[in-house]
């Protein structure tokens, strides 16, 4: 039978039969390994799989179908293991907050680069705009303009009040979407606003550390009334990069890619080379310094702090 993985806990998986929509609790037959990648989860939410029913609604996954794409990160702790956040994605939403918690441009850029590398469109959702003062609203507008200039769609939302949730729902129609961001950024609240019937667990920000509590422990996919599927993911603290060659990196910054053919050298890394179109654009203000700083950090293999 062919199925779609809706939930992964690392040891068992909820798989829906594509033909009937019936959900089965499955485990893995043997050990699956991605070629060349030591990852913590051999099977990810969104994977298409072949499975056999053992008894009732229990089953065994026997094969993973080839993935169209996936979002993968390396843990920034000592283990350095990789983790596939979700696979076979049509659209990613990155939930961004100015404070409680702060989403840095470094984190945003690392997520965007990874999504670009696998051909996944990303929309930035600037959440909690109902809580910001005038100065903070100006900062949101500045950031949104920065990323629109780089080629990304940005929507200011309030998951708590429902502001612009209709725009998010319109973008989602008929697509498999993943929602990502830091713990406490409002991912589960957003999904509840999109479909109140789901009743996803949410938690208040920790006052002591001004960070979110991990309310979503495992990634899980939900079917929505508008024909979309949405994947709720655990909060991410740091985003370690995986699998990107230095020579390729420019291609995953859309505003860099648009200019790189103007560089004197076709293999320009945009660091010390003369007549570099990227550095000229920086000086002219058509490329943001924060984006260039993120580019250099990734190029030099620095961790997300």
TrEMBL record:
Pfam family, one: RsgA_N
Cofactor needs: Zn(2+)
Record keywords: Cytoplasm, GTP-binding, Hydrolase, Metal-binding, Nucleotide-binding, Ribosome biogenesis, RNA-binding, rRNA-binding, Zinc
Cofactor note: Binds 1 zinc ion per subunit.
GO cellular-component term (any): cytoplasm
GO molecular function: GTP binding; GTPase activity; metal ion binding; rRNA binding
Domain annotation EngC GTPase: ranges: 87-237
Family matches, as InterPro entries: G_CP_dom, NA-bd_OB-fold, P-loop_NTPase, Ribosome_biogen_GTPase_RsgA, RsgA_GTPase_dom, RsgA_N
Domain CP-type G stretches: 78-239
Cited PROSITE patterns: ENGC_GTPASE (PS50936), G_CP (PS51721)
Entry binding sites for Zn(2+): 263, 268, 270, 276
NCBIfam families: ribosome small subunit-dependent GTPase A (TIGR00157)
Role, per record: One of several proteins that assist in the late maturation steps of the functional core of the 30S ribosomal subunit. Helps release RbfA from mature subunits. May play a role in the assembly of ribosomal proteins into the subunit. Circularly permuted GTPase that catalyzes slow GTP hydrolysis, GTPase activity is stimulated by the 30S ribosomal subunit.
Record's subunit section: Monomer. Associates with 30S ribosomal subunit, binds 16S rRNA.
HAMAP family per UniProt: GTPase_RsgA
Protein name, UniProt field: Small ribosomal subunit biogenesis GTPase RsgA
Organism: Capnocytophaga leadbetteri
Originating gene: rsgA
């Amino acid at each position: 039978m062919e199925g779609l993985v809706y939930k992964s806990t690392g040891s068992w998986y909820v798989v829906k039969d594509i033909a009937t929509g019936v959900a089965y609790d499955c485990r893995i037959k043997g050990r699956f390994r991605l070629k060349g990648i030591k990852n913590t989860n051999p099977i990810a939410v969104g994977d298409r799989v072949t499975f056999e029913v053992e008894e009732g609604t229990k089953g065994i996954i026997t094969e993973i179908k080839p993935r169209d794409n996936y979002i993968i990160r390396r843990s920034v702790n000592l283990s350095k293991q990789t983790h596939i956040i979700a696979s076979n994605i049509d659209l990613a939403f990155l939930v961004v907050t100015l404070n409680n918690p702060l989403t840095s441009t470094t984190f945003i850029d690392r997520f965007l680069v990874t999504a670009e590398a696998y051909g996944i469109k990303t929309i930035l959702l600037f959440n909690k705009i109902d809580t910001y003062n005038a100065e903070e609203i100006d900062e949101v507008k500045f950031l949104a303009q920065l990323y629109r200039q780089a080629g990304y769609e940005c929507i200011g939302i309030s998951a708590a009040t429902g502001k612009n949730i209709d725009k998010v729902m319109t973008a989602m129609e008929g697509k498999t979407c993943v929602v990502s961001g830091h713990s406490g950024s409002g991912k589960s609240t957003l999904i509840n606003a999109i479909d109140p019937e789901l009743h996803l667990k949410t938690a208040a920000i920790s006052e002591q550390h001004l960070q979110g509590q991990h309310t979503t422990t495992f990634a899980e996919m939900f079917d929505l009334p508008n024909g979309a599927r949405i994947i709720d993911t655990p909060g991410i603290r740091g985003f370690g990069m995986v699998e990107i060659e230095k020579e390729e990196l420019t291609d995953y910054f859309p505003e860099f890619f648009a200019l790189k053919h103007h560089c004197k050298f076709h293999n320009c890394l945009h660091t010390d080379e003369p007549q570099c179109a990227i550095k000229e654009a920086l000086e002219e203000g058509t490329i943001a310094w924060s984006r260039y700083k993120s580019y250099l950090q990734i190029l030099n293999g620095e961790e997300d702090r």
